[in-house]
Amino acid sequence: MAPDTRQARVAVVGSGSWGTTVASITARNTSTVLWARRAEIAEEIERDHLNSAYLGDEQLDPRLRATSSMEEAVSQADVLVMAVPSHGFRDVLAAPHVRPWIPIVSLTKGLELDTRLRMTEVIDEVLPGHPTGVLAGPNLAQEVLTGYAAAAVIAMPDAHVARALQDIFRRTLFRVYASTDVLGVEIAGALKNVFAISAGMAAGLGTGDNTRALVISRSLAEMTRLGTAMGGKRHTFAGLAGMGDLLATCISPLSRNRRVGEELARGRTIEEIIADMNMVAEGIKTSRVVMELAERHGVEMPIAREVYAVVNEGRTPEEAYRGLFRTRPTTELAAN
Amino acid sequence: MAPDTRQARVAVVGSGSWGTTVASITARNTSTVLWARRAEIAEEIERDHLNSAYLGDEQLDPRLRATSSMEEAVSQADVLVMAVPSHGFRDVLAAPHVRPWIPIVSLTKGLELDTRLRMTEVIDEVLPGHPTGVLAGPNLAQEVLTGYAAAAVIAMPDAHVARALQDIFRRTLFRVYASTDVLGVEIAGALKNVFAISAGMAAGLGTGDNTRALVISRSLAEMTRLGTAMGGKRHTFAGLAGMGDLLATCISPLSRNRRVGEELARGRTIEEIIADMNMVAEGIKTSRVVMELAERHGVEMPIAREVYAVVNEGRTPEEAYRGLFRTRPTTELAAN
């Protein structure tokens, strides 16, 4: 570990399952405070090293501190980690107390709905002048905390900063790779939820493993096409934050977005599905943003378009599926 | 369909499950003869439109002809499709009767064991002067024949030939994309079997969906590293013949290579596993060739190396798994 990062104090803002998991990892590597909006969550972490509301009886690192005071959490931080949902991101970030120049790392996947901004762009609007980046990959919180092997990418505009942060986030079974492609990693994280809905629809229609591989492969091609048109690097989409996260989201029965697709394929309406879920699946909201981005960048996205039509325009999954096969394939780099 | 390919007569050599499936597809598009070594298979196809030895009661296209006479099968062919296992490929190909200049398309995944040659290189040695290429992708024969959606890549050195052949192989639910990256498609098809063993080992050790996504993502990174060092195109490995086929092989319970990994993780020896299987899993043989290629091209392949050590040197899957996590990750493009 580099001497300059050994003493870095980390503040993680947001005590959901993934924020808490990451905080428990960094607490093992360096001094870490977790901010929880609800005082009882902070107290439980301090007292019992548990966050039972989000992580059941998974034991957290006993060195992890927690507080519901934003000032206490962030005023001494050398690294700020943002782990709040995209819709609350801007407001939480507006809290003062953050020291100048410190790196800010987003764990949040998704785009701000009204502005279509990535989370690092929101950070740059609210707290300009900080090096801002993102940590992302195929990361189911529970599995990482349980100690199953997993991996992620830390992307910062400055490779030196990314490398220094690697040591704060990693452990033996949580491999963290460094990158400078912040935009690519963020766009991949936002788009994958839309494609998880399409994978769920395919599964719900009772297709085979070939078809699953086909839908995921062509989804990756669409994601790469839009992401590179926006300035992301091709290898990011072929890596852990792109293909890796897409894959985990498409194969895991725990994925909310995949489940939305499966339920749609069973004939339920999007309103019924949303009413049944405690949390909204990000892919539903993102499908609209993706279509706007695709148009703005002149990129064809047939799979995302069909997801959009099913979610927003009442098209049936069967119609969507048939629609995808009406076109003639050309090359893999083209849209069809 | 282009006028020049409308009348093309296809000969498919090899009546295993995939050769028969492809022949049944092309028979729908154009005149097709399947060569079967065993006369009774040819007779059953002619009489009942079935190949019960390989495809149970799946109905084949009634227009498909079959014969056990090589001369009858290939002497009139305008396109030769080779669907015999890699170990018998050269001998079968040596049969005369092939008209000059006609395109030869390999369906065979794997490398020739003694020479380390790709199948199109073998074709070029035995029958020089033909345009030679490959059709590959995530294709489980039974699923394609049943009519589940699937897709493949046809790669030929000449893009015009690839585009003309697209029309011979495609149907609505079997999407065929054109490519000129013959080497990339062939190398991907050979390597994926080695990585399917590693995915099977991870599954057998009882890891989570994150870990599956991690193993598959990093396997793809290794495959891409070797493949591009050998001259393949990066986008091929991110596409259907690379990531798509790797994915299908790693998630399908039908994959022999994946099953080898799972059995190894359960503590069985490679000798016991081979003795139990009717057919040898390609990945076992290929693991040695891959290590030689990696050395020749100066490419680090930590996952393939661990598979090799487990298959050939008696290392346990647990040791292999731990070995992979001892290194420090750097960037996704590097080996670790």
Describe the structure.
Two copies of one chain form a homodimer. Chain A is an alpha/beta fold and 336 residues long. Chain A has an eight-stranded mixed beta sheet with strand order 3-2-1-4-5-6-7-8, sandwiched between helices. Chain A has 18 helices and eight strands. The model of chain A has no long low-confidence stretch (mean pLDDT 91). Chain A has helices at 3-6, 17-29, 39-48, 52-55, 70-74, 89-93, 119-126, 141-146, 159-169, 182-204, 209-229, 234-237, 240-251, 256-265, 270-276, 282-296, 302-313, 317-324, and strands at 10-13, 32-35, 65-67, 79-82, 104-106, 132-136, 150-155, 174-179. In chain A, helix 7 (119-126) links the parallel strand 5 (104-106) and strand 6. Chains A and B meet through helix 8, strand 7, strand 8, helix 11 and helix 12 of A and helix 8, strand 7, strand 8, helix 11 and helix 12 of B.
